[in-house]
Specification:
heterodimer, A: alpha/beta, Rossmann fold, six-stranded mixed beta sheet, 35% helix, B: 329 residues, 12 helices, cell membrane (chain A), transport (chain A)
Amino acid sequence: MTGERKTILDIRDLQISLPAGGDRPHALWDFNLTVGEGEIVCLVGESGSGKSLAASAAMRLLPEPHVHVSKGSISLDGTDLLSLSERQMRDVRGDRIAMIFQEPMTALNPQKTVGWQIDEVLRLHTRLNKAERKARAIEILTDVHIPDPASAYNAYPHQISGGQRQRVMIAMALVLKPRLIIADEPTTALDVTTQKQILKLIKELQQLHGTGILFITHDFGVVAEIADRIAVLSLGELVEQGPADQILNNPQHPYTRKLIAAVPALTPPPEKAMSKEPVVLEAKALRKTFAARGGFLSGKRNPVIAVKDLTFELRRGETLGVVGESGSGKTTVSRIVTRLLEADSGEVSIDGRDIISASKAELRALRKDIQMVFQDPMASLNPRRRVVELIAQGPIIQGVPRETAYARARELLSLVELPAAAANRYPHEFSGGQRQRIGIARALAMEPRVIVADEPVSALDVSVQAQVLRLLADLRDRLHLSLLFVTHDLRVAAQLCDKVIVMSKGEIVEAGPTARVFADPQHPYTRSLLDSIPGRGWEPPVLSVA
Amino acid sequence: MSIHIPPLLTYALRRILQAIPIMLLIMVGSFLLIKMAPGDTVDALVGDMGGADPAFVARLRAEYGLDESVFVQLWRYLMKLAQLDFGWSYVYEQPVLTVLMARLGNTMLLMVASLTVAFVFGITLGAFAARRAYSLTDNVISTLGLVFYAMPSFFLSLLMILVFSVKLGWLPVGGIRTIGAFKTGWADVIDVARHLVMPTAALSLIYLAFYMRLMRTSVLEVMDLDFVRTARAKGAGDFRLMVHHVMRNALLPVVTLLGLQFSTVLGGSVVIETIFSLPGLGQLAYTSVIKRDLNMLMGIVALSSVIVVIVNVLTDLVYAWLDPRIELK
């Protein structure tokens, strides 16, 4: 399948055993994969599919002995990696196979400078002297387009931006021109515009050096952007493998079809007629500045303007998307309108009642009308409470009798499509998608008029994401809810939101019906944002899913 | 690793200046507390003499300035302190500062030795145990640590005196030098070191156990972090991984506690110095309380707070050096 390309990585019949008592005996089962010279192979799968363990196995970095290779072979340029001693394997790592990880902040040692960390690779694998190593490190930093490589060399990871940190990781991986690079979700933690640059960089350098890349991701947009070949992994089994074009546009296996069908299309719903419904949530001239930290005798720091002069309105039954990159102030907006954060100035009203200047008692009553759904359903549910208590707690605080609140909580579970038995279990017993349903039920229990959802599907796998989005849309229509939907994912925004506001540096740069903003963006920032959506050239095929 | 001296120095100076109001509060508080306790210097003196007639007692009080109101005494004391005059000790018949300085060296020797032993052995054993987590070695180290941690230092001291001094005769029972030996040069150093072995052990073991437990947990935590995986992926070996990536990151919580606990260790030295008759600040504090030597006690409090403040500033500097994300402002 690799054509005339020389094979670099050849994984055959690989089987990785998991410790007894896991959800399955093998993390990977009969896994076959090759990566050729100058080829980008995307290994796609949802969480728990075993894709990251496949990468660890190739690096021989599995958490042995609990998780270990029980069968099969992995060879690099004909050398059987599994038969090498640990000493020999150390020479391979970083030199012939390099890795790029997901989270560039935590993947770099916070106590060492960028230069030191690149230098370490050279020190471990070459006999270059200090001056030569430094010259080489600065050269590679230049290659990954870091502005001012000489000062980046002396910087600590926290002193440079997320995108630059990922460039440093790439520089570190490329400095010895390895034969194979394993990239494990290298752009997942980055903003779209940064993601676009990094993907371009990876592709550019790979073509320059003829490196083979095993690219692990869950994002089909990214796959469409970069892959030569695609392998789809489901629960440790390789279900489909083939050229990118074939898998993306004509997938055969039901699982692949399901995954691709779940990718939100970039075409927003058609523009609705101007809503005549009353305005439920209104924000006027909101402003929030984060003061410099430190007090007594501390040095000066510039205050950060998180939100400046923000105005919007949300009508009944409408979904307003707040989109923007990290640092744009979109989360601050969601915190201010729920008054989890105090605004410096401006007005927010729910049904005409002012929430910003409400007293404690008034605020408690108002909170009933505006509820939040958070990004991380695990972190936002108290792990020591049963689901029914979690859902009923809000109404009980508002004065609803315990019995009534519990009965209502059980009804809500069926509304969010969870079994009645879920009521007596604890949050950790559920999957991410189910937990988010619990989070939604908890918000609904208050019978709010407005739900503010802050990245509610960002932590979920794509197929689960699609279900949760459908549920949200369905509930909105049935219960005449209004949604303020904060997201960085433009595909998700396109699917759900009637209107969007695009934020950059605390300001609205563009606002309007989603269909209009997406089809004919006016502001350059919106244009660059839309232009950066990975795989925007690929329209997911309409598939019937069995 | 470059340290830019000027900002660090200004930081240190600022921190010390910030400490002045706190120290003033400590001084006033201690002064009032001591005054609230029943009995004063004169009572203690008269008690030693076996009693005296009230006229003599009153004359003594007037002479020592103890007949004035507490606040006048406090004001007078603080005024003198502002000129770095610590007053006169009526028990030692010497200026307080002279007595303090004569004792300070011994206490610092004990403190530095104890903390060094506790820190160095604590982090090494802790890291060692973490590398072999849940193995027999780890269990043995952890259990021993727990035993040391649970054992009161005065009990350990007496046990050591019994075994090493009384039964085996290897080490001196107490003091800082062999009395009347007048050794010089290396012989003197060795003599002092021999006297310090047991007090150091008694004072440090509990902290050693503590740092060990802390370091073990911290190393285990750091070993799971992403950048350690990155270092492995770069081809770093186990030793390099521990020394360059794990240990320094794992040290952060230990260093924080080391700074915070310095004052506790200083407090612990009171017991240890008293047991081993070590002529240091701790022992001095104990006798000064018994003799109601107000000026001396206040001097000890002042000196100890200065030491604790300085150590905390040093800890912050070390912390900032260890973790470049911390900006000293």
